[in-house]
Amino acid sequence: xxxxxxxxxxxxxxxxxxxxxxxxxxxxxxxxxxxxxxxxxxxxxxxxxxxxxxxxxxxxxxxxxxxxxxxxxxxxxxxxxxxxxxxxxxxxxxxxxxxxxxxxxxxxxxxxxxxxxxxxxxxxxxxxxxxxxxxxxxxxxxxxxxxxxxxxxxxxxxxxxxxxxxxxxxxxxxxxxxxxxxxxxxxxxxxxxxxxxxxxxxxxxxxxxxxxxxxxxxxxxxxxxxxxxxxxxxxxxxxxxxxxxxxxxxxxxxxxxxxxxxxxxxxxxxxxxxxxxx
Amino acid sequence: xxxxxxxxxxxxxxxxxxxxxxxxxxxxxxxxxxxxxxxxxxxxxxxxxxxxxxxxxxxxxxxxxxxxxxxxxxxxxxxxxxxxxxxxxxxxxxxxxxxxxxxxxxxxxxxxxxxxxxxxxxxxxxxxxxxxxxxxxxxxxxxxxxxxxxxxxxxxxxxxxxxxxxxxxxxxxxxxxxxxxxxxxxxxxxxxxxxxxxxxxxxxxxxxxxxxxxxxxxxxxxxxxxxxxxxxxxxxxxxxxxxxxxxxxxxxxxxxxxxxxxxxxxxxxxxxxxxxxxxxxxxxxxxxxxxxxxxxxxxxxxxxxxxxxxxxxxxxxxxxxxxxxxxx
Lengths: 278, 328
Hints:
The structure holds two protein chains of two kinds.
Chain A: E1 23-25, E2 32-34, H1 35-40, H2 56-63, E3 68-70, H3 89-100, E4 106-113, E5 116-123, H4 134-150, E6 154-160, H5 168-187, E7 192-200, H6 202-205, E8 214-218, H7 228-235, H8 246-252, E9 257-259, H9 261-275
Parallel strand pairs in A: 5-6, 6-7, 7-8, 8-9
Antiparallel strand pairs in A: 1-2, 3-4, 4-5
Chain B: H1 5-29, H2 35-53, H3 58-65, H4 73-77, E1 82-85, E2 98-105, E3 108-115, H5 121-126, H6 134-150, E4 154-160, H7 167-171, H8 174-187, E5 192-201, H9 202-206, E6 213-217, E7 221-223, H10 227-234, H11 241-247, H12 252-257, E8 263-265, H13 276-294, H14 299-311, E9 325-327
Parallel strand pairs in B: 3-4, 4-5, 5-6, 5-7, 6-8
Antiparallel strand pairs in B: 1-2, 2-3
Helix pairs in contact in B: 1-2, 6-8, 10-11
């Protein structure tokens, strides 16, 4: 199908927040922000309120009371399909590792929030677009199994382009694996919260993300099953700007609440209090 | 011009088929013995068939799986002893891209579900080319829950390019519909047997394919993304789809090797549509045999078996849940 002329050939790359840079430019309003101010403001533009995509450890630091005990970090991705397109898959993993400082698209472990012990999973879009490979699924499953064993609530922050192509069907099967783990976890009366962050789509949104008891989304996050471009290509129409935003999903009844990043921790702590026994 | 490689290739056989048929007719009408001519032509026909379809590349299998004459879910379901279709998601509408209902297969009552594409343009439009909307997945969820409650085994047929990517599907929370369907299948307390009969496209296919036993027809495909979609994303070039098909490891053999598919059913030379009747009979026999092995398991055993089956896909280590690193 030929591409309609108004549709750009490639998505325009969003400017990245890198650790080295002293200054970051807001992709929405263009304001140049001093990196330290931006971090102090939880990576929200001080001028327009744009929520930058957060790195996993920055997120954990912004949410946890203090210590974070990581789980599953020893589980590392392999190359089951011996994949190579323009680059080999191991080479892609290597450059993602260097760029993001992560070994996979999710960091999992235990922390306390407002004094409540929780199992915490945080996906990071900077690693392979947050795609779910075998190890992403494995870490999330290990987390849910450990949380079930310890009978503590689980909070997962999603950010994902879906199942990872380079691991083929083994990646798709992680939808089944994580779903099975969520089901067991919930069946035992445990509380499960997901925070949808920008962007969450495909296999992750269609599995463990939308299975939560309470679904929170960060302001303005793009959330959907199909990617915006795929829909535009299919229906040959430009979609309204609001389509697939957190606010759109709230209006359609698909999620429980939209929360600004500055209110997120307090909101999560209140949710944990409602579900706490005794 | 068909955009299906296999249909294109079959054109060269049509002329030969016509000549064989003519010769047969003529031979029946007159005393002349033409059996040797017929045999020679048939020999040639088989030879061409072998050359054309003897070995199929992954990309050719993608086209075989999409062949317009390939048996669809309803071709299998209509050969059940009985089938009573149940409709609707009880919320918004009935989605014709998923069919489901009570059925009796070889004297056993079951709940049957399948993605359904159309055979012609009109039916394809009605069935949205076999791409289910959230309403379809919610119907599947409803019927799977009913099956669990009535202790009816679940039989599914998988044949979809993928879940519908459209405005209304997004407005009706396609992600949630698939997520809950997946959850229902992982927790169903009855045996589930899934058969990939055509194209298994991503999460939209998996929603009906979580099962205790997964069967796949020899030339069906099952992949994380369509080759076209994969090529567009990784190469920014949809014309690399053939290359993507080879990379994706989407054939029955690949998936059997990975432990994702339990049994492969052979197809006649040239594909299932060349002898649909036998293919359907053989498939229903395999489904029945799988059910016979599973019905003796208790619900607890089934759930445990199913959990472990999916748990081990991408399992790096079974033991050692101890925290390994303390950060911050």
